[in-house]
Structure formats: C-alpha cells, structure tokens
Design goal:
Layout: H1 4-18, E1 28-30, H2 37-50, E2 54-56, H3 59-64, H4 67-75, E3 80-83, H5 85-94, H6 97-102, E4 110-113, H7 120-130, E5 140-145, E6 152-155, E7 165-169, H8 170-174, E8 186-190, E9 200-204, E10 217-222, H9 234-240, E11 241-242, E12 245-255, E13 258-264, E14 269-270, E15 276-277, H10 279-286
Length: about 300
C-alpha cells in the first residue's frame, strides 16, 4: 500500500538527495517498463517532483536491439539513466565498434544499476567497452531498493571514478561473516551506499538484535518511504513489518557505514554436502566460462 506521502518522500529523497538533480540541466532516459517500480516511480513520478524531463523508449526496442538504448542516450543527450545489471552486460556485448565510434556519451553523469544482484565485473566491462564514448566509472551508481520502500533505499556514487567493492571470503560469508580476502576463494560485493536522507537501515539477526559491522544478517529498514503493509494481506504484513522496522528478507552487511548486499534469505542453493551457496555467486562464476558467458 503506497501512499501519496510515501511517493513524495521517496521522490524527493531520490531527486534532491541521491541524484542532486537539476531540472534545467538534467535529462533522463528510460526503456524500463512502466509496470515496474523503477520505470514508473523512478522515471515518471519522481522526475515530476523535480521537473526533470525524461525521454521514453519502447521496452521491446531495447529487447530487440540492446545497443538502441545507448544510441538514444547519445541522440537525446541524456544525463541520467537506470537499468538492471543484465542490461549493461547486453548493451556492451551487442554494441558494434562502428556504433561506439559515432556516439558521444560524455554528458551522462548517472548510470544507475539496481533491481537485481549487481556484478562488479559487468559494470567494469561496460565502462571499459564504452570508454571511447566518454563513459567513465564516476557515473556508476549502484543502488538498493524494493517495492515496500516505494522504490529506493540507498545509493552509492563511485568516489573518484572507482567502483567500490568489498572482497570477502566466500566460505566465511556463508557462515555470516564478511571477512576480507584476496584469495581465489573470495567474492566481490558492491557498495550500495548509505541510506537515503531521513531513512535508516540496520542488519539484524533472527531474534531481532542489531548486528555489528562486517556481520551478515537481514536488512531492516525504516523511514517515510516505507509502506504500512500489503493490500488485503494481514499475514504477510505481520510477517514483514515488525514495530517500526520492515524486515526485507535481503541479506547484507555494513562496512564503514556503507551497505553491501550479499544475498537473500530464501534465495539459497543447498548442495548435497550441506553447503549453502548464493545463486548470484554461482552466476558470477558461470559468466566467466567462455561458452556459458556468451549465452
């Protein structure tokens, strides 16, 4: 149940707080479907609060030719765009050298990425592939959000043009500890920044106790963007909304006050040996395979 107050709070937090948008200079561009919260709230409702113009592309045009998104960013001189992780991988892979040579994407200051697990290798590859067009890592904006928070919860601008990640031991991560590691058995989790202004995020254990930094637990959120519950679903509301906190079902950890998403409570593969594996880590490994990665 998203109220007008929820929409207003999230829209202002996104446009004024996270993006520092300027309706006289910025221009958004989106191919995201309008039945998705990132497309509807992120590119229709929130920009209206700040009078930022937006160009819309038919979603199927992106599906048929992912590089069309980049072509239109060039044509419309856009400064802000958002998409899930997979879109950056597709667009970079399908863009032709001749197309890249003809585009000027140097005006883009925000390349938002969210709505699904973020793979650092995907974003690095995108920047490397499109660097000749003027794309830089400084524009990368990993973010975290969910429909229960209206849309956005946190954003993390890449400081100094560097995508900030936490490289942790995969085995320790499965046990609930974000232990730094540079070995072959490590995985990268992306910095999704601090919570939006006037919002709070904490990491809790199963008993509702707040956990210290570098400890993995369930992400719990509160603030003016958080809805009060699910429509005509009292049981679902009681399970997720406890006191002033929304229990997201997502797993994460904090490091130096910044949020890192590590997985989802119910999204776990259990092997025959009894080990728990996060699907996103398995996907990341498969993408390195010379055949599977191109599929």
């Amino acid at each position: 149940r998203v109220t007008h107050a929820n929409l207003a709070a999230n829209s202002f937090a996104i446009m004024r707080g996270a993006l520092a948008s300027d309706g006289t200079k910025d221009r958004g561009l989106s191919w995201l479907p309008l039945y998705h919260d990132m497309g509807l709230i992120g590119f229709v409702i929130a920009p209206m609060f700040d009078r930022t113009p937006v160009s819309f592309l038919p979603t199927m045009e992106f599906v048929k030719r992912p590089s069309y998104w980049l072509e239109m960013l060039h044509k419309h001189k856009a400064t802000i765009t958002f998409a899930p992780n997979f879109a950056y991988a597709l667009a970079a892979r399908r863009a032709k050298d001749s197309e890249i040579a003809s585009w000027d994407l140097s005006r883009i200051r925000v390349l938002g990425c969210g709505a699904e697990p973020i793979q650092p290798a995907t974003l690095r590859g995108f920047v490397e592939r499109l660097s000749k067009c003027g794309i830089t890592a400084k524009a990368l904006l990993p973010c975290y959000g969910m429909a229960e928070a209206t849309l956005a919860i946190s954003f993390a601008q890449s400081p100094g043009g560097v995508l900030r990640v936490d490289r942790v031991d995969a085995e320790a991560l499965r046990e609930g500890s974000a232990k730094s590691s540079e070995t072959d058995g490590s995985v990268e989790v992306v910095n999704c920044g601090p919570a939006l202004p006037k919002h709070d995020v904490c990491v809790m254990d199963a008993e509702g106790n707040t956990l210290p930094e570098r400890t993995v637990g369930e992400l719990c959120i509160r603030g003016p963007s958080i809805t009060k519950g699910y429509f005509q679903n009292a049981d679902g509301t009681a399970a997720a909304f406890k006191g002033e906190w929304l229990h997201s079902g997502d797993l994460g950890e904090f490091r130096d006050g910044f949020l890192y998403i590590t997985g989802r409570k119910k999204d776990i593969l259990i092997t025959a040996g009894g080990k728990n594996i996060a699907p996103k880590n398995l996907e990341s490994e498969l993408k390195q395979h010379p055949v599977v990665g191109e599929a």
